[in-house]
Amino acid sequence: MGNQEGGTSKPRRGGVSKPRPGGMPKPKAPACCGMGPLAPQRAWRRCACPCHPGAHRRVAAVVLALAVTLAGTGGVAMAAGETAGVVRGEQPGLLEAVLFYLVATGVVISVLGICLSRSVVRMAVWLFVTLGLVALLYFLLAATFLGAIQLIVYVGGTLVLLVFGVMLTSRSPWARYNCRAWELYGAGVVCLVLLVSLCLLLGRAEWVGTQATTPGVPVARIGEVLLSKYVLPFEAAGVLLFIVMVGAAHLARDTKK
Amino acid sequence: MDSAVNTIMSGSEPIGRQLLLLSPLLALVATLLAVVVAPLFAGRGVRPVVTVVLVGLVVTFLAVLRVTGEVAHAGAAGLLAERLSGMLIVDNLSLGYMFILLVFLVGVMWLWWTGSAPTEQDAPEFFILLLGSALGMAMMASSTNLLFIVVAMETASLSSYAIVGFDKKNPVGAEASLKYVVFGGISAAIMLYGISLLYGLCGSLDVAVVARYTLEALQPGGANVIVLTLGLLCFLAGIAFKMSAVPFHFWCPDAFEGAKIEVTTWLSVASKAAGLILLARLALTFCAAAGNQTAIPLLLPLAWVVGILATITCTYGNFCAYKQQSVKRLLAYSSIAHAGYMMMAVTVFVYVDPQRAPTPLPGIGALLTYVVIYLFMNLGAFGVTGLVAWETGSDKLEAFTGLARRAPWLAVPMVICLVSLVGLPPLAGFIGKWWILLALGATGGTLGWLLVLVMVLNTLISLFYYMRIVVRMGLHDTEAGPVRPPVRGVVLVNVCAAALIALFVLAYPLKDLTDRFAQALYLPVVSATQDGKQAVVSGLPLVSDGYVENRRPSE
Amino acid sequence: MLTIGLMHYLVVAAVLLCGGIFVMATKRNAIGILMGVELVLNSANVNLIAFDRYLCRAGIDGQILALFVIVLAAAEAAIAVAICVNFYRVLATIDVDRATKLQG
């Protein structure tokens, strides 16, 4: 669906866009892969052409499965956090440690997944996992409200918006944008050095009052603070969202009346 | 519910006065909403929108006037200042910036009315975004809370991204806004990481507390210097992006070239000035935290960071301007260089001892004067470029060939604006640079004299590329016929040129005026107490005779 | 090791930050770069909330800032996606390496 959109509704304005292979004239026989729609699934799984809509269904299924898993894990984590006394600010126990290490490992793996996957859709799926796991971290940090907001707004809103963006701006959502090998390795080395030095640095720093875990903040308190101390930024954020709505609507709207 | 109301009430000011102090920003928001509603009754044409905006700006102007009187009478105030320096600062500096912003908005509207208005289909959207960015910039100039700074900067940035790509059919504009949003997103994210580190170290989002903590850390044997430096540098990166200081300038030439010329003019002055005022306010807060102690020299490293950034910025901008063929892009690089000059004025604060400072503060007066003059120079230069581009269809240097013969009423103001941008007498640009040089020299420090040298050398360098345009207009000639721009545009650029001459003549009255906005500023003072917690002593403004008095007359 | 402290969360946040920077540096797709930005924002949020929980001096401000960051990230994503869509409509790509009309 999305790829058909991107593949055929080509911009016709001016001579700015280069003629693209496999465009409008022959939608039935895309020049990109040469495989018919009946080729074995394994062969066109990684194909970068708009002729295999079945691929999308698979992505959707994966995303749905992940969502269900995440929601389930979130519920379990919240319950476990409750049992482990995280929310009540009791002494941290073994359960919390196990949960933390599980989630942290997941975060590392999914961040690696984002870094190493080449197609944007794969990146989006990995980002989906990362953001969900970060929400679990918030639950473990007794910030239940923030965890819920992260799942609702970030995972449910922002990420879906990004996926929309991918679908709307790609001839095929599977299109790859490769960069040169030395860039990849150079950036990798720099980031690793940065990571190690950052960890050393933060480990050496003296954070005043560590280990004194505070109990979770009740949601009512957040609302109270938002409407008293932070009422001006709160209102300003409202105006900001309104302006953004107008700007985004103007930019994304088609020019033809 | 009661507690929320109580916090607002017990915060600092009675609720009526808080609303009064907020009224300029409220008037801007109301104008924005009126622009949304107006097309429902009067259609999407240009005329109703412009009328509504003009009425709104006049109301805002009156509100700023009223608040200025109030502040002059009863002192500066921080709104919601329950504990520390407050969420929103209303003092002479923020009000002075509001005045500049309003005048400049009218100038940009005039330019828009000349150029784009006849063919504009989406005037309401344009003005919503323009006013939105103005609102964000006004908020940037009046905050010392990290959270509010973030919200204000994002308001200014997000509407700027959209307005750069406003002309949807223009591929260059689309590319410019894409680059702008990508770089902006990256710098905002880095800034937020820095802010999170600062929060962890200081335990508060208040800049006053951060300043206090920095001073303690910078003392010999202080802890956490590296993490603190990392946090501060990341935070500074976000502000440097708004000021387009090198190395965070990548967006600036592209966005300026791709955007419509009105938008370029708007961003080149208002956005940079907002970043600079914010930087100045941060510097002031740091000085206030140092108090009258011997702690002032501890801030010298920070001043060096800003000074080096300023040096690189103006040198880089001037050298890159050389090879440009597009006048719009050349002026974009020139605006980078001018941001560097204005940053130099900020370094002066470090030498200010807030308890015994001569009022008005030397750097702020020079900075405000420079911004006022820079406003007219850029409006005039970009205005002529726009008029030539609209008539000939090109903003390249070739389009200016023989302009002295083809359109003397454009060539003369262009020459005046360019000479003023160089900073030669007898034009106002000289005055702007002169006050900054005096302020730098008056500090007597190594940094001050180095920056004086850098500024003079850069002025010499910049002479050549500005003169390229002048030579092209005056000494070369072409077969092309005369250029006949619309009269209202010609009036605008000539008004700007006249203002530049007038401001040179009226240099001292201008200085007096800007000095008026550089005194009695809101300076929160935080003192260290036992067990590392901070407690506020009071929010203290500087008052005219160099003594400190409480900001509320009732106490 | 088994007692989870502030440092554990800071390290996770550092991983998110470095991953984000890597993504911004290597991806050529504008929306890919935006995903890197989201990672860095999340790293800041993890820092903020961890500070709120583990430092006795900190209060609720970190959580409030994190809340605002989430809102601002959504707003920024909206604008950025709109700009990308517009760019694609005009130029038929969002490969930032091919955005070369403006140079010099």
Outline the structure in words.
Chain A is an all-alpha fold. In chain A, 64% of the residues lie in helices and 0% in strands. Chain A has two domains: 51-201, Up-down Bundle (Four Helix Bundle (Hemerythrin (Met), subunit A)), CATH 1.20.120.1200; 218-257. Chain A has nine helices and no strands. Chain A is globular and about 50 Å long. Mean pLDDT of chain A is 73; it is low at 1-32 and 36-40. By secondary structure, chain B is mainly alpha-helical. Chain B has one domain. Chain B is built from 20 helices and four strands. Chain B has helices spanning 2-11, 15-42, 46-74, 92-115, 123-140, 146-164, 171-202, 207-218, 225-243, 251-258, 261-290, 300-321, 327-347, 362-392, 403-406, 408-422, 428-443, 446-474, 487-505, 507-516, and strands at 77-79, 88-90, 522-528, 534-541. In chain B, a hairpin with an 8-residue loop joins strand 1 (77-79) and strand 2. The relative contact order of chain B is 0.10. In chain C, helix 1 runs antiparallel to helix 2 (30-54) and helix 2 (30-54) runs antiparallel to helix 3. The longest helix of chain C has 31 residues, at 61-91. Chains in contact: A-B, A-C, B-C. The A-B interface holds A 13-14, 16, 201-202, 204-208, 224, 227-233, 236-237, 239-240, 243-244, 246-248, 250-251, 255, 257 and B 3-5, 7-8, 29, 32, 36, 79-80, 82, 87-88, 121-122, 125, 128-129, 132, 135-136, 139, 145, 147-148, 151-152, 154-155, 158-159, 161-163, 165-166, 168-169, 171, 177, 200-201, 203, 223-224, 226-227, 230, 532.
